[in-house]
Amino acid sequence: MRAALLHLDDALGPQQSLRERVMSAGGRDLDCHDLGPALRLWSRPAALDQLAARLGEGLPAAEGPRLIFAGSGDFHHVTPLLLRRACEAAGDPPVTVVHFDNHPDWVKFENGMHCGSWVGRAARLPGVARVVTVGVCSPDIDRPRSKGADLDLVIDDRVELYPYHAPHGAPGLQLCGRDWPSIESMGEAAFADFLPSRIPTEAVYVTIDKDVLRPQDASTNWDQGRTSEAFLTTLIGRIADRHRLVGADVVGDWSNAVYGGGLLPALLKRGEALLDQPWTHPDAHAARRLNEAVNLRLFDVFSQAAA
């Protein structure tokens, strides 16, 4: 599986070691900075259509499976576009999406997509059998209906969610008649054995938001979870042992936010970020070094898994 850098912000540009590794292995470098501000945090259909056209030109499906690094987790809603490309490249098999994230990203959002709403779009794509979300620690899963969750995804068996720890110290998450154990209650070793059994298809697409990782393992624009890098890479390896990887994407690198899409959308996005994201910013150079190290290890893990 060859890799690609999708530049929507300034997160990946300084990661020269990653770029050298990607390009030396036959990868691609796709500059879409000009679309980034309109896409960041949430975007309307026109901006998504522009990105889809750029992806079709710069990362044609005929080139085969890709591991795509796409910068900040504020852009996680580009995943359905990347997933569609991966399915086409693989010949449109039934596919399961394995989603590592500190947030469920399953809220409802009208007239476009939000980085917290893309799971519903992905889960309803033709050929997608299930989205399996792993590692959530955020309070979004406590009384999710009141927080705008699209729980039809759960009722229709389109989504399963395995939190790292469940709300209020419970052993798992109980929702719409489903009962999903937490990683904490099972133990990491047992969960690593268990996860592949929840994937009903041969083909798997993996999407990672690095905010699933502990703060010592990544630096992001969002609150972070409790998964270690070592545990994440173990889970990827276990999935690859029993399933065929048809593509993957990685977001979650911290970057300085630039919002666009017009004056009003930019103001709304800035206000939303002030409400939802940490106010303190990391040292940019330290964040880049930490995230590049994780990206390089993920590059190696996916390269080995897809070999």
Index terms:
single chain; 307 residues; alpha/beta; Arginase, Chain A; eight-stranded parallel beta sheet; two-stranded antiparallel sheet; 11 helices; 19% strand
Explain what this protein looks like in three dimensions.
Helices cover 36% and strands 19% of the residues. The chain is α/β, with parallel strands linked by helices. The protein has a single domain (2-305), classed as 3-Layer(aba) Sandwich (Arginase, Chain A). α1 packs parallel to α11 (284-305). The strands form three sheets. An eight-stranded parallel β-sheet has the order 2-1-4-12-11-5-7-8, sandwiched between helices. Strands 3-6 form a two-stranded antiparallel ribbon. The model has no long low-confidence stretch (mean pLDDT 96). The protein has eleven helices and twelve strands. It starts with a strand and ends with a helix. The longest helix is centred in the C-terminal third of the chain and has 22 residues, at 284-305. The radius of gyration is 18 Å and the shape is globular.
Please describe the topology of this protein.
Layout: E1 2-7, H1 16-24, E2 28-31, H2 36-39, E3 42-43, H3 45-58, E4 66-69, H4 79-89, E5 95-100, E6 113-114, H5 118-123, E7 128-134, H6 152-155, E8 159-162, E9 172-175, E10 178-181, H7 183-186, H8 188-194, E11 203-209, H9 229-242, E12 244-251, H10 263-276, H11 284-305
Parallel strand pairs: 1-2, 1-4, 4-12, 5-7, 5-11, 7-8, 11-12
Antiparallel strand pairs: 3-6, 9-10
Helix pairs in contact: 1-11, 9-11
